[in-house]
Design goal:
Layout lengths: L6 E8 L10 H16 L8 E5 L14 H7 L6 E4 L5 H15 L4 E9 L9 H8 L10 H16 L3 H15 L13 H6 L2 E3 L2 E2 L8 E10 L11 E10 L18 H14 L4 H4 L2 E3 L5 H10 L8 H6 L16 H5 L3 H16 L13 E8 L4 E9 L1
Helix pairs in contact: 1-2, 3-13, 6-10
């Protein structure tokens, strides 16, 4: 099945990302949905199905366990609402489910919303602690997100040479982009010296190469493309989508054939999405991308996994400022996860919000000139699950 030109985003909304201590989980759901409704020119009563993406409802506020946590703040009852969880691809998977409902004919107008509130908790209640307590009795012990992705960085350095400066340049780039985004968690540029000297977390990933713990919510309104003009003339079209779970907890780390130089899930999902969208050369055909920079090394590796350059050539993209706003292939002009933060269930939908605004020409200071085709990428777990969404201007 292909999604190409069959689904339209007619409205998008996003809260301020940050330490939203003054907002409850329900407040953020309401604010993101309200902006999306207003953008689409509809009301909540017009929605006939919804998907709520929350990855970790037990990490602090115990919200997002079911569709009830979307229905209640919006007063949106008597329709099917499904809670979705798929690690960092949660938001993208909520979007996928909404698309499938539309194409099946079950629904006509749907809401996909991601929300996560991660700041209302003590360090002892962190996601890392929760995963150690409740995860696999062997594989989860000593497991941290930074350490998981850092091993690919160390292997890359062993094979291709030092990338310390390139990783710092990605941090500087994304914090600069974040300074242009009023909804980002961090909105201040940083210097190369600051990026290079920040404390090490898991070599080669340091503090400025790591995303913050963040609260936030984002929403998109979807309908079939043939019906989009009933609501607005300013919509964007889905060109391609793929979600791949390519490993488990023990893999790829115990796979003797794994080279630790990329992520199969991203590679598989991107190729399937490209095929749907009719993309043969992503570097030349895409105008921008929002990729999963939970750590700067992940963005670096993703350049190669997405086929934006050949293996071993990602440093050239960074050094030539190809991925900076104004470059040939801008990446994370929102500021990415490094600046926006990573409220896990919301991140994928926040990326769709960003692409929608870019393709509508409404991204203000961070607008990519003549943006017509954009990609959103999420990767989660131990690099096991990846979501790729390709959107295009109508």
């Amino acid at each position: 099945m292909t999604f190409k030109d069959k689904i339209a985003i007619i409205g998008a909304g996003c809260t301020q990302f940050g330490e939203n201590f003054n907002l409850s989980y329900g407040d953020m759901v309401f604010d993101a949905a309200k902006e999306a409704f207003e953008d689409a020119g509809i009301e909540g009563k017009d929605i006939d199905a919804a998907w709520l993406g929350t990855a970790f409802p037990d990490a602090g506020v115990y919200k997002g366990r079911s569709g009830m946590d979307l229905a209640e703040p919006l007063g949106m009852f008597d329709i099917p609402i499904t809670r979705v969880s798929n690690y960092c691809a949660t938001g993208g998977d909520a979007f996928r489910n909404g698309c499938n409902s539309l194409l099946s004919g079950e629904s006509n107008l749907v809401l996909a919303l991601g929300a996560e509130k991660l700041r209302d908790r003590t360090p002892q209640d962190s996601i890392v602690r929760m995963m150690v307590d409740t995860g696999h009795p062997i594989y989860q012990k000593g497991f941290t997100a930074a350490g998981t992705f850092a091993v690919v960085g160390t292997r890359y350095i062993h094979v291709y040479g030092d990338i310390t400066e390139q990783l710092a340049k990605i941090s500087v780039k994304n914090h600069y982009h974040g300074s242009l985004n009023p909804k980002a968690h961090f909105q201040k540029p940083i210097t190369m010296e600051y990026a290079l000297k920040s404390p090490m977390v898991a070599y080669p990933v340091n503090l400025m190469g790591s995303c913050p713990t963040t609260d936030g919510a984002a929403a998109v309104i979807l309908t079939r493309a043939e019906d989009a003009k009933k609501y607005t003339d300013n919509y964007v079209l889905l060109k391609g989508y793929s979600l791949s779970i390519s490993t488990g907890w023990d893999l790829p780390f115990y796979d003797p054939d794994y080279d630790f130089l990329g992520y199969r899930a991203t590679q598989v999902a991107s190729q399937k999405a490209y095929k749907q969208a009719g993309i043969e050369d992503p570097y030349k055909e895409l105008d921008l991308a929002e990729v999963h920079d939970c750590f700067n090394v992940v963005e670096f590796i993703t350049y190669e996994d997405l086929g934006l350059c050949e293996k071993g050539k990602a440093s050239e993209l960074v050094d030539n400022e190809v991925t900076t706003l104004g470059g040939e292939m801008p990446v994370n002009v929102s500021g990415g996860l490094l600046s926006c933060g990573h409220p896990v269930g919301a991140t994928g939908v926040r990326m769709l919000y960003e692409l929608t605004k870019q393709l509508q020409g409404e991204a203000d200071k961070r607008q990519v000139e003549n943006a017509k085709l954009g990609l959103a990428h999420n990767i989660g777990g131990p690099g096991a699950v990846a979501s790729i969404t390709i959107l295009g201007a109508k």
